[in-house]
Hints:
- The protein folds into 2 domains: about 180 residues, no CATH class; about 90 residues, ACT domain (Alpha-Beta Plaits, 2-Layer Sandwich).
- Strands 3-6-7-5-4-10-11-9-8 form a 9-stranded antiparallel β-sheet. A two-stranded antiparallel ribbon has the order 1-2.
- The protein starts with 5 loop residues before the first strand and ends in a 10-residue tail after the last helix.
- It is about 20% helix and about 25% strand.
- By secondary structure, it is of the alpha+beta class.
Amino acid sequence: xxxxxxxxxxxxxxxxxxxxxxxxxxxxxxxxxxxxxxxxxxxxxxxxxxxxxxxxxxxxxxxxxxxxxxxxxxxxxxxxxxxxxxxxxxxxxxxxxxxxxxxxxxxxxxxxxxxxxxxxxxxxxxxxxxxxxxxxxxxxxxxxxxxxxxxxxxxxxxxxxxxxxxxxxxxxxxxxxxxxxxxxxxxxxxxxxxxxxxxxxxxxxxxxxxxxxxxxxxxxxxxxxxxxxxxxxxxxxxxxxxxxxxxxxxxxxxxxxxxxxxxxxxxxxxxxxxxxxxxxxxxxxxxx
Length: 288
């Protein structure tokens, strides 16, 4: 892919691109509220002091998190809610990973490098700013197959990798993340009561599948644990949306039993199994 120079200005109203830099792109849409970033092997951001974000898959040009800060006002004590969303449904060809941390967003090169180290290819990225909240989306596929990520183990590794990067480059996020208890500089002040936080239910989603919704206290290995529970009772997961909102995990799974929607009896069995395992005080080591 040809060398690309992308400048994202602090006003968030324009992108300046060299048409000659893109050999395979016919058009490149821009709007005031959405900034589109084409990921290339190298993007040079050194020519503009107002650059807010640039991307490099190989991480060679990785810069310090302060270079990417979207925070323009004075420092405050308020720590925004960190959100990591893994979306398997919206795009048929790619897994979408969305990251937001209020108006603070940095170390994006390092995040992309970490994803590549997992054997993933970042196809493109988008940045959206709304009501002072900045959201970054990465569209990723498996580097070996060019297809979206299906393996639950890889999905969990993606989630934990992004959370690890948040803890590393935004240490203040540790007080809003479950992993901040063990790996952050400051543990969460308020811990989630698992008994109160855990809710799960199943509803119909057509004749061939059901929709399982799970809300519980977050912890490492949570996704793998839930997938294993479903596998143990022969429930197949077709797709998933994995949403980590601070200390809470809010996940949705499209599931079926032998190609059909779950009946009421099996739905109740699944709910009971999840309730039992998710309300355990600790996760077994083999779930990590």
